[in-house]
Design brief:
Layout lengths: L4 E3 L4 H10 L4 E3 L5 H6 L7 E4 L9 E4 L2 E5 L4 H6 L1 H6 L1 H8 L4 H4 L4 H7 L6 H7 L3 E4 L3 E3 H4 E3 L2 E2 L7 E7 L3 E8 L6 E9 L5 E6 L6 E2 L1 H9 L24 H20 L24 E7 L3 H8 L2 H7 L3 E8 L2 E10 L2 E14 L8 E10 L5 E14 L6 E14 L6 H24 L17 H10 L3
Parallel strand pairs: 1-3, 2-3
Antiparallel strand pairs: 4-5, 5-10, 6-7, 6-10, 8-9, 11-12, 12-13, 13-14, 15-21, 16-17, 17-18, 18-19, 19-20, 20-21
Helix pairs in contact: 13-14
This protein binds flavin-adenine dinucleotide.
The site of flavin-adenine dinucleotide has 32 residues, from strand 2 and helix 7.
């Protein structure tokens, strides 16, 4: 366990001041996730900033037609609030179904949202209700807050003061829980606004909370279980792990959504006999465990050139604080990965192997071997294969690029305790962020990415050398 100091501020301003003074400090709410991660050595904050003495974070009140819940309200306090029961009873159902009484009396809504566990209940409730997360800097709509597994839009020094829930006509939350923890194997929240707009959000699928937009459209145009008869949730969007297959999880999504709606309409909720979840072919073991593909609006030559530019890589790799060339084709990068209460800085060696195209029309390929060390937390390794295929757009006549990649990451040490499910989902999430930023760079976006890193740039000579070396 690391040496971590303990701070106990007494006002909202003091909390913000602590976070500004100690960038590696972590807020301590009920400690239900944070202390476990700390004891396992999965995070090493310099300070705990305990929120329990900060006034105004425990309020539940009506506010301009909305309902305000302070960040430090515990699940038990929310479940017992008469205001919640009278205004949004769904929140009571959700809060009283969380874990066991001990955890409900200590765990908080703010901690649960900041943590954004992929099987937690609050993210689903907040997203379906179209609630807003109020921080010390701004108001973040739920759609923009949850960025994927254990990731949120909170920036350095930013923290949650509370959540504002709008009034809705009707809402309900149902989960099929894991027997041991009561976390959601799958949880579904359905909310219908006063104007009849329906939102359906799902937790437990493995990648973080998400919306089921097909169901939302169907239920908005026709409110009733029958509106869902032609829909099946895509099993590929659901994770397979020791608890359940993606196929089973997808089936639960449909079942729980139907049951939730049936509570309001009184219809029978049984699945129609023909409706089974869509299941696509699983990857064969010889393929990388993780795969992805992105269509990029630029020619393969341009994509290739940008992809091999270390300054571009540094800009696009999430959390990349520095990248240096150690020898031809070898870089060293400092990459900070944060996962809820867990944070690790990897010193990563990257070796690049390019494969010259066999013929003028054949795809461009390269292989990256990454080896990362996160001190006492452990090590990670991955081989990533990248291939660029030419795509002709018949309408615009432009030549675009389909970038396909596959990788098999391996972790050892403490960080491996996170398990493959978490690791794979994190890798997929980071890849998605990478390609979003990369697409931005290709389309000329010069906004600096939202991350803390030294604006280190490779010297012009090295950059030129790179461009020349990989020139076709
Ligand atoms: C065995 C077990 C079963 C559980 N089952 C369920 C379940 O069924 N459903 C469910 O939804 N949840 C479940 N949980 C989660 C639990 O209810 C807590 O909500 C969650 O662990 C967060 O705990 P906490 O509020 O004590 O926050 P902490 O552990 O203190 O903090 C968690 C993270 O949030 C950050 N943080 C805390 N407060 C803020 C804030 N105001 N602003 C910004 N960042 C903040 C911390 O720095 C830390 O990174 C379970 C937890 C356990 C241990």
């Amino acid at each position: 366990m690391s040496n971590t100091d303990y701070l106990r501020p007494r006002s909202i301003a003091e909390v913000s001041q602590c976070l500004a003074s100690f960038p590696e400090a972590q807020l301590l709410a009920g400690g239900q996730s944070l202390l476990a991660a700390w004891r396992l050595g999965l995070c090493k904050p310099t300070h705990f900033v305990d929120l329990q003495d900060v006034p105004d974070l425990n309020d539940i009140r009506s506010e301009d037609g909305a309902l305000w819940i302070g960040a430090m309200c515990t699940h038990a306090q929310i479940a017992a609030s008469p205001l919640i029961v009278s205004q949004i009873p769904m929140l009571r159902v959700l809060a009283q179904g969380i874990a066991d009484a001990q955890i409900r009396n200590v765990g908080t809504i703010g901690g649960a949202l900041a943590n954004n566990d992929p099987a937690a209940c609050w993210p689903a409730g907040v997203l379906a209700m179209d609630a807003s997360i109020v921080t010390n800097h701004r108001v973040i709509p739920a759609d923009a807050f949850f960025e994927g597994l254990f990731s949120t839009a909170l920036q350095n020094g930013e923290w949650i003061l509370g959540v504002r829930f709008p009034r809705v006509a009707w809402a309900h939350y149902l989960k099929f829980e894991q027997a041991a923890s009561r976390f959601a194997l799958v949880g579904v929240a359905v909310a219908r606004s006063t104007r009849g707009q329906v939102r359906v959000s799902i937790t437990g699928l493995g990648q973080g909370v998400t919306r089921w937009t097909d169901a939302e459209t169907a239920l908005t145009s026709q409110w009733g279980v029958h509106a869902l008869n032609e829909l099946a949730f895509d099993a590929e969007a659901a994770q397979t792990d020791v608890h359940a297959s993606g196929f089973y999880r997808a089936h639960l999504v449909s079942v729980l959504t139907r049951r939730a709606v049936a509570i309001d309409t009184g219809e029978p909720s049984l699945m129609p006999p023909t409706r089974t979840p869509v299941l696509r072919e699983a990857p064969t073991p010889s393929q990388g465990r993780l795969r992805g593909s992105s269509l990029l609006q630029a020619s393969p030559d341009r994509v290739w050139q940008q992809l091999l530019d270390p300054a571009v890589l540094q800009r696009c790799i999430p959390g990349c604080a520095a990248m240096t060339l150690t020898q031809p084709e070898h870089y060293q990068a400092l990459i900070k990965v944060g996962l809820g209460p867990i944070s690790a800085t990897f010193t990563t060696q990257i070796a690049l192997f390019t494969e010259p195209p066999q013929a003028s029309q054949s795809p461009m390929r390269c292989r990256l071997v990454l080896t990362g060390e996160a001190g006492a937390l452990g090590e990670g390794k991955a081989t990533v294969f990248v291939q660029l295929d030419t795509v002709h757009d018949p309408q615009t006549k432009h030549i675009n690029t389909r970038l396909n990649w596959q990788a098999t990451p391996e972790l050892t040490g403490k960080i491996a305790q996170l398990g493959n499910r978490l690791m794979d989902a994190t890798a997929l999430n980071l890849s998605q962020q990478f390609f979003n930023r990369f697409s931005g760079v290709l389309s000329g976006d010069t906004t600096p990415p939202n991350q803390k890193f030294s604006l280190y740039a490779l010297t012009t000579n090295v950059k030129q050398w790179f461009l020349r070396f990989f020139e076709r």
